[in-house]
Amino acid sequence: RMEGFGLYTLPTGAWYRGSLWDGMFHGKGELLLPTGGGYRALWDRGVPTQGKYAFTDGLEYDEEKWHYCDGYDRRFYTEICSGFKPPGIAQLANLDPPKIIPEGCYDCGDGFYNPRTRVVVDYKRKFLRNA
């Protein structure tokens, strides 16, 4: 069984980096997702006892003091950190500048879907999967 500090890749593409004991996450460790976010936690026999989730852009989730996109404050996280753009320049997504999606295609988060070809490619036009 795995023990000590290690790096473990899960079948989902997520991976764990941290302490292991008897084949389980145990101690300080971080579960990193293929999309870029991650959960940094203190683990006890595979169960997180305390931790924080951070989104890809660095925004940390806080269950008790979560005020992001709550209906009263609709700013993107980058606007909270860097301020608003000058009048007349709209920011339509958190990522600034946003990814360029060809007309007639749909953003999938990891790339875009073209309904004519029924293919999903990444933002650099590299094939990801068939739809």
Description:
- With 131 residues, the chain is mainly β.
- Among the domains are: 4-54; 99-130, no CATH class.
- The chain has one helix at 77-82, and strands spanning 4-9, 15-21, 24-32, 38-44, 47-54, 106-107, 112-114, 119-121, 127-130.
- It has a five-stranded antiparallel beta sheet with strand order 1-2-3-4-5, with no helix packed on it.
- A hairpin with a 4-residue loop joins β7 (112-114) and β8 (119-121).
- The termini are far apart.
For the sheet with most strands, the description reads: 5 strands, antiparallel
State the end-to-end distance: 39 Å
Gross morphology: flat
Number of helices: 1
| Helix-and-strand structural type | mainly beta
Order of helices and strands: EEEEEHEEEE
The overall pLDDT, averaged over residues, is 86
- Low-pLDDT runs of 5+ residues are none
